[in-house]
Amino acid sequence: MDPAALSELLAAVAAGDVEAADAAERLRRLPYADLGFARVDHHRPLRQGMPEAVYGPGKTPEQCVAIVGELLQGGDGPVVLTRASDEQRAAVLDAHADGVTTGATVVWRALSPARPERIVIAAAGTSDGPVAAECEAVLCAFGFAPLRLDDVGVAGIHRLLPHVEALATADAVVVAAGMEGALASVVGGLTAAPVIAVPTSTGYGTAFGGVTALLAMLSSCAQGVAVVGIDNGFGAACAVTRVCNQRAGRA
Amino acid sequence: MDPAALSELLAAVAAGDVEAADAAERLRRLPYADLGFARVDHHRPLRQGMPEAVYGPGKTPEQCVAIVGELLQGGDGPVVLTRASDEQRAAVLDAHADGVTTGATVVWRALSPARPERIVIAAAGTSDGPVAAECEAVLCAFGFAPLRLDDVGVAGIHRLLPHVEALATADAVVVAAGMEGALASVVGGLTAAPVIAVPTSTGYGTAFGGVTALLAMLSSCAQGVAVVGIDNGFGAACAVTRVCNQRAGRA
Amino acid sequence: MDPAALSELLAAVAAGDVEAADAAERLRRLPYADLGFARVDHHRPLRQGMPEAVYGPGKTPEQCVAIVGELLQGGDGPVVLTRASDEQRAAVLDAHADGVTTGATVVWRALSPARPERIVIAAAGTSDGPVAAECEAVLCAFGFAPLRLDDVGVAGIHRLLPHVEALATADAVVVAAGMEGALASVVGGLTAAPVIAVPTSTGYGTAFGGVTALLAMLSSCAQGVAVVGIDNGFGAACAVTRVCNQRAGRA
Amino acid sequence: MDPAALSELLAAVAAGDVEAADAAERLRRLPYADLGFARVDHHRPLRQGMPEAVYGPGKTPEQCVAIVGELLQGGDGPVVLTRASDEQRAAVLDAHADGVTTGATVVWRALSPARPERIVIAAAGTSDGPVAAECEAVLCAFGFAPLRLDDVGVAGIHRLLPHVEALATADAVVVAAGMEGALASVVGGLTAAPVIAVPTSTGYGTAFGGVTALLAMLSSCAQGVAVVGIDNGFGAACAVTRVCNQRAGRA
Amino acid sequence: MDPAALSELLAAVAAGDVEAADAAERLRRLPYADLGFARVDHHRPLRQGMPEAVYGPGKTPEQCVAIVGELLQGGDGPVVLTRASDEQRAAVLDAHADGVTTGATVVWRALSPARPERIVIAAAGTSDGPVAAECEAVLCAFGFAPLRLDDVGVAGIHRLLPHVEALATADAVVVAAGMEGALASVVGGLTAAPVIAVPTSTGYGTAFGGVTALLAMLSSCAQGVAVVGIDNGFGAACAVTRVCNQRAGRA
Amino acid sequence: MDPAALSELLAAVAAGDVEAADAAERLRRLPYADLGFARVDHHRPLRQGMPEAVYGPGKTPEQCVAIVGELLQGGDGPVVLTRASDEQRAAVLDAHADGVTTGATVVWRALSPARPERIVIAAAGTSDGPVAAECEAVLCAFGFAPLRLDDVGVAGIHRLLPHVEALATADAVVVAAGMEGALASVVGGLTAAPVIAVPTSTGYGTAFGGVTALLAMLSSCAQGVAVVGIDNGFGAACAVTRVCNQRAGRA
Amino acid sequence: MDPAALSELLAAVAAGDVEAADAAERLRRLPYADLGFARVDHHRPLRQGMPEAVYGPGKTPEQCVAIVGELLQGGDGPVVLTRASDEQRAAVLDAHADGVTTGATVVWRALSPARPERIVIAAAGTSDGPVAAECEAVLCAFGFAPLRLDDVGVAGIHRLLPHVEALATADAVVVAAGMEGALASVVGGLTAAPVIAVPTSTGYGTAFGGVTALLAMLSSCAQGVAVVGIDNGFGAACAVTRVCNQRAGRA
Amino acid sequence: MDPAALSELLAAVAAGDVEAADAAERLRRLPYADLGFARVDHHRPLRQGMPEAVYGPGKTPEQCVAIVGELLQGGDGPVVLTRASDEQRAAVLDAHADGVTTGATVVWRALSPARPERIVIAAAGTSDGPVAAECEAVLCAFGFAPLRLDDVGVAGIHRLLPHVEALATADAVVVAAGMEGALASVVGGLTAAPVIAVPTSTGYGTAFGGVTALLAMLSSCAQGVAVVGIDNGFGAACAVTRVCNQRAGRA
Known about the structure:
- The structure is a homooctamer of 251-residue chains.
- Chain A has helices at 3-14, 20-29, 31-47, 61-74, 86-95, 129-141, 157-160, 164-168, 183-188, 211-218, 233-250; strands at residues 52-55, 79-82, 100-102, 105-108, 119-123, 147-150, 172-177, 195-199, 225-227.
- With 251 residues, chain A is α/β, with parallel strands linked by helices.
- The longest helix of chain A is centred in the last third of the chain and has 18 residues, at 233-250.
C-alpha cells in the first residue's frame, strides 16, 4: 500500500466516508499482504528490468505452460523460459503463442531494443555458444542490444585483440568460457568496465563440468572480476541488468 | 603514442624538422613499448579509480617497502597494501610515512571522499569484519564513503529489515558472509542494485574455510548476484569501482 | 525374556515342575534369540511410530512386491515404499491393492490423522516439492497432519513472513531447500522449535546436486539446526517422529 | 502494532483527535521498526532457553571481554563462551568473575539443574571428549543434567550394550564420534529418541578432519538420525534444547 | 629358461654338441623372453588360485567372447567374467557353453568346493547383495564355500549378534556395506580374522556412490581392517584368496 | 556365564540350595555384564596377538602415562604407544621404564621374536621410513621379525627386482608408499601373498597428503591388494597380525 | 607493418608524396589489424605441424560437416575430427569423402609417414586402447609412425621389460593408463626421453573417472614426467609434436 | 652380463676350462644382479643430464649432509638439493663447501653453461618467483642458460607481448603461474615449442594452494601444453632436460 493510498484511506476515515472499523479491518486483514505490498514498493524498482523467469529442467511441459501463463497474467514485463527442452518449448509456445525462441530460451514481451548501454558478450569457444546465447536472449528481453564476440579464446590471443576498443568502451562485459576460463582474466585486464564471468561446462577431462573454469575465474589475477554460477548465462544477464538499471536510475 | 603525438611527429617529418629515418627509428625502436603505450591509453581510463595494490602475504617487509615505493613514484593515484602483517606495516609506514592503516590494510594518497555513489557493505557477523574492513578501506581510497552494516546475518532477520531502504536505494551492495553465506540471497532479494558477494573464511567445521559460503553464493536463488573469491574484500571493492566508474564515465 | 517370565521359570524349577536341565537348555538354547527377543522389547517402543519402509531405487518391481508383502504380514503398522518408479508402483499396487500413492511414495495402513503436533514443512521452491512431498507422505502415514509451506525461498523474504506465526508455534519444522539452502538459516532464526533441514538436489551448476545446500545447512548461523542427507525427505519425517514420539511418551 | 492499537489509532482519526496525515505519517514512519518490534515478540519465546553465546576463535581477549559483558548486561539468561583459549579465558574471567569453566567453555548464570529430561551424550572415544564436554557444558547452562557415556565406540560393541536401557529411555541422545562415526548408526538403532549426531575431527589420515564421520552420519542406515556440523558440540546442545523446550512448552 | 634347460644347454656346449657361439646367441637373443619365462616361474605360484578374470563393462560382446576364449585356452584354471551385461553374458555363454552364471558374474571351470577355510561374507543390506554375490562367485570359483550373512547392518545390531560365533571362528571375513559402512567396524571388533571391507555404491544423497563408506572403512576404529575399492567384490575375493593360499602353502 | 555355571545354578535352585528369587536376581542383575563377559570370551581369541595401543597425538604427556600404565596393569601382552612426541616419550619412559623406542613408537613387553612367518615391509622412498618403522615396531612387538626393503620405489625398478624372491615367498607383504603409490601395484604383481598397502603422506603438491597414493592403491591393477588408511603403519601391522594369527590358529 | 614498409611510408611523408595526416590515419587505422597480421607471422611457424582439429562431442553432425569443411578449405595441412559419434562420422565422411577413420577419430590429408622420430605409445590395459588410438591417429596425421605397446601395465611387470630397449631409445614416449596410472612412473624410470602421461578414465570405483591416474601421474616419483588432461590422447600427440617439431627445426 | 663376457664364458665351457655345472651356477646365481647390471647400462644414458637430487623437506640437516655426500661421491655429475631450509643449507654447505645457492636450491658441480638450447621460463607474478628460480637453478646445473621472464601475467597482456619473439623461437618454455594459471594458455598459443606448465601455490582463497592453476593448465585450450605437479619447478626442469637431451642425442 503506497503512501498515497494510505493517506487517501485515512482521509476517508477522517471524513467519515470509511468506518474506522472497516479501515482497521482492511489494514489488519492483510498485514502481511500489506507489508508485502509495501515491500512490493521496494520490490518494484527491484523488479524493474528484472525478468520473470522459469527454469525448464525438472518441470513437466504442463507445469511450464501453467507457470508461464501465470507470469504472463501477473504482470506486463518480459517473461523468460530457460533451458527448455523441445517438448517443453512446443507445449509452451502452443499455449502462449507469441514467445520468441532463441536456442533453449523463450521470451515473451521482450522490450524493444532501446537501451543505450553497450554490453559485450565474449565467448571463448563455439561450445560456449549456448550459454552466451542464453545471456544474450535475456538481455534482449530487457531491451539491451548486446554485442556478441564469439570464439575469442586466449589460445589465439590475436583473435581477441581487434576487439580491445569494444571491450574498453563497454558498459559491462560478460565473459563465457569453459575449460581453463582464462578469457576472463585477459578481458579483465583490457577493460575498466564491470566484468561478469560465467564459467561454462564446456570441455572434458579435467574441465570437470565447469569447476575448473569457475575456480580460475574466481582466482583471476584481473582485479574486480565477478563470477556467477556454472553455465548461468541467465544470472550473468541479471547481474548486467542490475548494473545498468542502477546507472539508468541515477541518470 | 596518442593520435595527436603521432600526427605531430608525422607533421614534423613532413616539415623536414625530423628525419624520416629518425622517425622510423623512434616508431620502430619501441614497437611494443609504443604498443604498450597505446594500450596504456586504453588502460588509463581502465586504471582510473582502480588501485595500485600490493598483496602482503608471502613478501618480506623489505619487498613491501620497495614495491610500495615503486608504486608511489610511478603514479599519483591511491596505493593500497592489503593483508599486511604487523611487521610489514611497521616497515612500510616507516619508509612511506603518510599511509593510513585500517585493520591489515594501508592506504596512501586516498582520494577525498567526494564520490556520490551510495555503497552499502553488509557483513553477516562480527568475524566477517576484517573482510568488510578491507573492502571499505579500498573503497575509501577511491573516494567512496560506503555505509557499513555489521552483524546483520540472516539468523536474526529482524536485524536486517531496518536497513531495507538503504539496500533498496544503494548504487551497489557488497555482502560479506561466511558460514552458510545466506545473507547474499536475502540481500539480493531486497535490492535491485548490483550485489557483489564475498564469501569469507569465517566459521568452522563444515564452513570449510569459506568454500561453503562460496558455493552457496554462487548458487543463490536471488537473480544476478555476482561473487568474488574467498575473503577477497579487495576484489569486491574493485568490482564496485568498475560498476561506478563506468556509470560516472557515462554521466 | 522379561523378569516375570524368568522368575516364573525359576520358580517352576524350584517347585520341581520344570527340570533344571530343561530350564538350562531353554535358557541356553536361545541365548541370542533370547537376547534378541529381549532387545526386541527395547525395540518395540523404538519402532512405535517408526515406519517399515522400502527404498525403491535399485530393486526390481518383483522385489518391491515381495518386500512390501513381507512387511505387511510381519506387522500391523504403516508400510512405506519411497522413490518408486511408475513400474514399481504399478506392480506393488497390483499386488497390495490398498496402498495410497503420493508422488513417488506409496503408503499402506496409514494411521488416521489424529496426532495433535503441529508440524510445518517449508519448501524453498517448487522443485523442492518432491522431497517435501515424500516427507509429508511419511508423516501422514504416522498420523501427523503437517502444514505445507511451498515456494517460501529467501530471495523473496516477504513470502515467508506471513508464516512467521506458524513457524514460531510449530512443534517441529522441516525445511527442504536446494541451491544455497539459505531457508534453513532464516527459519531457524524465526522459531524455537526443532528444525530438521533437508538439502535437496535442486539447482544446477554450483548447486552440485545438493552438496552446496548440505554444507550451507550444516554451517547455518542459526543455532541448533540439524540436518539429514540430501533429498532425504523420509529421514526428515523419521527425525520428526523421533522428536514427537518422545514428547508423546512423556506426556 | 497490534490490532487493538491500530483500531485505537483509526478511531482517533475518525474522531478527529488525530489528523489523517499524522496517522499516515505514524503508520508510514515505523513500518519496519514496528514490524521489528512485533517480531521481537516472536523472538522472545524463540530465545527462551537458547543461549547467548560467543565463539572464541578469531577474537582478541578484549573482544571476548566486551561481548560477554554486553550479553551479561543485555539479558539475564545463561551466557556461554566456547572454544576459548587460555588467554581468552583468563581475560574474560578476570573481567566477569563468576563464570564456570569446563574445558574450553565458560558459562555464566547457568540455570540450576532442575530440568527433568534425560539427555544422554555418548562419545565414541576419549579424544571425542572435548566435543562432548562442550555439549555437556552448554546443556548444563540450561539446567539439563545430561548423562555422559564415554569410550563406547563400536569396535568394542560390548562396551555400549550395558547402556542400552539408558539409550532406549532417553529424551534425546547426542552422539559424538570421529573416525568412521559408526556409533551414530548403532545408537540410532537402539533408541527411538531424537538422535543428534556430532561428527568430530578426531582421527587421522582418511578421517579428513571429521569429513568422513560427517558423511557417514548423514548416510546412517538408522532412520531419522540428524546431524550438526563438525565438532559442533554447542550446536548439538542447541538442537537438544529446541527439542526439549518445545516439549516443555506443550506440557 | 629353467635351471635344467640351462644345465642341459651348457652340458651340450661342454660336450661340443652345441657351439659356444650358438649357445651365446641363443641366450643372448632372448634375454627378456628368457627372463620373462624365468619370471613366469615366479608367477606360477603367484597365479595359483588367482583367477583369470575379465571385467565386462566397456567391452563389446565380441571382445568378451574372444578374451574369455583366450583365457580358457591359455590355462586350465578358473576363468571369471565380471559385471557382464545381459548381452555380454548371452554372447559369451553361447560361445563358451559351460559357464555358470551368478548375477552378473560368469565362471568357467570352477574348482570343486573342497577348500576347508571358513570364509564369511557379511552384507549390510539387501542392496549390497550384488557386490557380495560377485565376491561369493569368485570365491566359489576357487573352491571356497563361503557363508553369506545378508542384511546384518548395524542399525539393527541384534541381527548381527547371532552370528558372532561364525565371525569369531572365520578364517577371513568380507564385509560389504554401503551408506555409512559401519558394519566393517562392528565386525572388526567381533573377530580376530582378517577383515576385508568392500565399500559399495549402495545408498543415495551423501553416500556419494560409495565414497562415504570407503572413507569410513579406511578410518575404522577397529584395528587392522583392510579395504578394497568401491564395489570391488572381485578384489575382496582375491584378497581372501591371497590370505588363504599362503596359509595353505605353509601347512 | 558359561553353560556349566548356568546348569549348576539351576541345579542348586532345583535342589533348594538357592532361592528361585535369588537366582532370578543373579541372572537379571547382570544380563549385560554377563553378556559382556561371555563376549569377552569371544574377544579373548580376538585380542590374542592384537596390541593394546595408544595413539599419541592430542594427548597430554600425563594422559599417555596414565593410559599406558592402565594397559600395562590390565594385561600381560605387548603395549604400544604410537606417534609419540619427544615430550610424551620422555614422560612415559620415565614412568614406565622398560619401554623400547623405535622412531616415534614405544613398545613394552614385546614378545620374543619367535614367529616363523616371513613378513616383508617394502618402502618406496626414504621418507616413507617413519611409516614403515611404525609398522615394523608393532610387528616386532608381536614376535614377528619382518624384513625391511627400503628405497625400492618404481622409478628405479631395478632396485626392486633383486628382492623378487623374498616377495614371492613372503607370508604377507606391507607396502608403504607416498606420491603416486605405484609400488603397491608392482609388488602385487610379483607375489601371491597378502599385500597390505599403506599410503603415506610423503610427497608434495599433488600428492595431497597421501590421498593420491590412497586412491592409486585402491585402484591398483594388481588383484587383491588391500589398503589401510594414510600413514597407518600400525593398522597395516594389525592387518598382518590378523592374517598370521588365523593361520597359526589353524596349524 | 615491417620496418621496411614503415621506413618507406615515412620517407614518402618526408618527400611530400604522402600527407602527414594520411600517414597518421593509415598508421592509426590499423594498429590491431596490423598487429594481428604481424602476429599471424609468428603464428605461422607455430601452426606448422600442429593439427587443425575439431572436437566432436556437443556438436551436431551438421556443425561437424561445416567446421571440417572450413578447415579443409582454410589450409592444406592435416585436419582431425576427434571423439566423433557414429552419426557424426557418417555425416562428415559423406560430405568430405577422403577422411580416414581410426576408432572415433577421422583424419584428412594425413602427411605421409616420413618422419624419423621414434615415438612409443604405451597403454597399460586394453581399455586404454581408445585413448592410445586417438593419440596414434593424430601422430600419424603428422607423418609420425609411432610404435604401439599395448597391455603393458605394471601388475605384470614382465610384460613391459621386453620393451625396455624401445623405451630407452625413443624420442618421446606417451603413456596412457587409467586406474592407478603407475605405468607412467615405471616408464619414466626406464627412459630419458620426454614422457607425456595421459590419464585415462578407465577403471571403476576409486579410479574416479581418471582422477586417480591423473593425480598419480602428477605425483610420479620419476623425474620430469609431464601430464596432459584425462583421456586427452589428442593433447598428448600435440605435446609430442611440439617436442619433435622444435627438434626438427633446429637440426 | 654383456655379450662379450657371455661369449667368453661359453667359450671357456666349450674349451673345458670351466665346468658346465659351474657356468650354470654362475649364470643362475645372479640372474637379477646381472639383469640389474644390464639395466644400469640402459640407465646410464637415461641418467645422462638428469640430476642427482635431494628434496629437503622432512629431512634432518644431518640426513641432507649424508645424502648429498653420497651423491657427490657416487658420480661426477651435478647434484641438487631443493627446498632446503636455512638450517639445512648451512649444514650442507658447511660439509660440502663448493655448492652454489639460489633461493632454496643448492647446486654442486653445475655444468658450465654451454648448452645452446634457448629455454624460456615465464613467471606470471613475483610470487611465482621461487618456483621459477628452482627451475632455473636446476636447468643451470645442466648447463642451460634459460631466459627468465618475470611478472608477465595475463591481466596485463601488454607485458607479455614484447616477448612474443623469444617465446616463438624458444626450444622449450616453462610457464610458472598460480591463481588462475591462464598464462600457460596464452603462452601455448604464442609458441610451437614444448610448453611445460608448472602450477604454483601462489594465490589465496579459491586458488586452493595451486589446485585451481593445476586444473586450468590441464584444461588449457592451447594444444599440447603438458603439466607437472604443483610448485614442481624441479620437475619442469627435468622435463625440459628430457626434451633437450633427446634432441642433443639425435643431432
